[in-house]
Amino acid sequence: MIFGRVKPLDAILATAEKKSLHRSLGAFQLTMLGIGAVIGTGIFVLTAEAAQKAGPGMMLSFVIAGFVCAVAALCYAEMAAMVPVSGSAYTYSYAVMGELIAWMVGWALILEYAVAAGAVSVGWSGYVVGLIEHTFHLDIPDLLTRGPFDGGMVNLPAMLIASLVTWLLVIGTKESATVNAILVLIKVSALTLFIVLSVPVMKMDGFHPFAPLGFSGISAAAASIFFAYVGFDAVSTAAEETKNPQRNMPIGLIGSLAICTIFYMLVAAGVIGTVGAQPVYSAAGEALAPGSAALSQQCAALAAAGTEAVTCSKEALAWTLREIGWPQIGNLLGLAAGLALPSVILMMMFGQTRIFFVMSRDGLLPAMFSKVHPTYKTPHVITILTGIFVALFAAFFPVGILADISNSGTLFAFAAVSIAVMVLRKTDAGRARPFRTPAINITAPIAIAGCMYLFWSLGVETKLMFVGWAAVGLIVYFAYSRSRSHVGRGVVDVAEDDAGIPPQPVPPLPGAPTPGGKDA
């Protein structure tokens, strides 16, 4: 039965209390983590990608993506406050729609976070390499700074930053979150300076034609730029490490949404109004695909003719400032991006390791993945394993491909939570809800429809990749996870061997013995 093996909410909460991560995050740190995850790649890197797909119409793309995220985040806020444990959409789905759906959601989140972290690592590499080249007048070989799809061999700077972030996460969430807060302040300051310098000199001519590729281009750009909003999902995975989560989780989710959306709109307007954002076309008059070899060749031809476009830049905001007469400020913004983008990588990997942690704790993945470091109190085994994969993604794939693949997993998870919050209102209406999603019968269906619309707007290759990943997930589930699931075996939790965590089995499913062999 597809909706079988539901894990009771009471059991989920008891499990978390028994084998818990250290609670160290407050509302301010959660908001900083959210901003760190959201204001990053979408502004610093994917602005050029969105411009190539939609032209100035990317302003509307930001609105569409932000709106879908807003309604989904309201659903997330209710679930995150109600179920303050690691696992995010995976945990919520387990409590509402059963183990198979929960497994598929968790599998999609694995795709989302690991690939997203790789994408931001590539974006970071672009800014740092550009900064070094402009500051020291060097020409760093593309072979060492771009992957095979981009005309290089391996992206070494991207591998380096992924490894550094892995180390930060292994030594502890508190230390990681503190570093993240500093980086967020640098990032917001740099973007504020960009807005101050670019918005006052905007010219309305840059906004015409507004939608050169029609509404389909705007939709495609919205599907890509949605990548920048996955921070909300990642923040909800930190619930188990949050002090007073019933109060702090909604503040962290909704507070970071409001701040980030304002920045998106102002920065995008500054780019369009100063240097323009029209797509680059082939000689035959066709708009070229972002990240393609054809676009790279056309951009090289434009550069040789002295007419570069923002859509060709791998450091769009720094390039814009240089073009409007602020070369040194442009370099400083490049430096800020180089310092700040790691905060996004950190947030993505933070979410990824916590998803693995809770899936392992439920028996769906090997127990070694939920092993907690005795000193740092972090799931170090899976953190290191995740770091290796992120570094490989970053080394060999371009940012656009990685971002779109990540979005497919994100949209699936967002839709699942929106469904879960509606179902739970019916099946568990009496449970305390510190935060209630307003107008749930309107908000949740809009969120579901919005996620489906953006998913459909992704490229065909991306959608096929997601289907393939889902198929592999089903094979893993039926070959390994289903037979080892604690819920499927009638055990909601198992006693830990770790001497630092005393065995305290929670009540099992009705009619099943406890792990200690006693009757419920």
Q: Could you spell the SSE succession in H and E letters?
A: HHHHHHHHHHHHHHHHHHH
Outline, from the CA principal axes?
globular
On the 0-100 scale, what is the average pLDDT?
81
Low-confidence stretches: 494-520
By DSSP, the count of extended strands is 0
Cα Rg: 23 Å
Q: What is the distance, rounded to the nearest whole angstrom, between the alpha carbons of the first and last residues?
A: 26 Å
- In DSSP terms (H or I, runs of 4 or more residues), the helix count works out at 19
Secondary-structure-based class equals: mainly alpha
Beta-strand portion reads under 5%
Largest sheet: none
Helix content range: 55-70%
Keywords:
single chain, mainly alpha, 19 helices, 66% helix, disordered C terminus
Could you characterize the architecture of this molecule?
With 520 residues, the chain is an all-alpha fold. The chain is built from 19 helices and no strands. The protein has helices at 9-18, 27-38, 41-44, 46-54, 58-82, 89-96, 99-136, 156-171, 173-198, 214-225, 231-236, 245-275, 293-304, 316-323, 327-361, 380-396, 399-427, 440-457, 460-484. α6 runs antiparallel to α7, α7 packs antiparallel against α15 and α8 packs antiparallel against α16. It is globular. Residues 494-520 have low confidence and may be disordered. This is Amino acid permease. It is a multi-pass membrane protein. Residues 498-520 are annotated as: Disordered. It is found in: Membrane.
